[in-house]
Specification:
Blueprint (H helix, E strand, L loop, with lengths): L2 H20 L10 H32 L3 H11 L1 H16 L13 H18 L1
Length: about 130
């Protein structure tokens, strides 16, 4: 697919992490080991979302000969539901940790930041 597509995927990782990092103070999180582990855990899905959108854009651009902007918009719309459902199924088990039980208060940082990072990845992949 080429160097340009690889650069777009490579840029999606720091951009997604930066967006997630910006929202940490708003949800009352500090940088600790559980937050860092959530970032590392979500890293694979961040890259996967970007690859899916870039590959679909490349396929549509080559197949239909649309200009790159139109094919990128069309490709992002075409894979939005699969990416959204993949993200939500990844987040579903972690949502149980957000139940507010007292013994889970220590682990709140992990699912909270996983949600934060994966939604940032979803935003970056689509826009």
């Amino acid at each position: 697919m080429g160097l340009v597509n690889a650069l777009f995927v490579a840029l999606s990782v720091p951009l997604s992490m930066a967006i997630a990092f910006i929202f940490l103070p708003f949800i009352g999180f500090t940088m600790n080991m559980l937050v860092m582990f959530a970032f590392i855990f979500a890293l694979g899905i961040v890259v996967d979302d970007a690859i899916v959108v870039i590959e679909n854009t490349h396929r549509i651009h080559k197949k239909t000969k649309m200009d790159i902007t139109s094919s990128a918009k069309f490709a992002a719309g075409e894979v939005f539901l699969p990416i959204l459902s993949g993200t939500l199924t990844t987040l579903a088990p972690f949502s149980l940790w957000l139940s507010g039980r007292e013994w889970l208060e220590v682990l709140w940082f992990y699912p909270g930041n996983t949600h934060n990072t994966l939604f940032a990845s979803l935003i970056v992949a689509i826009f």
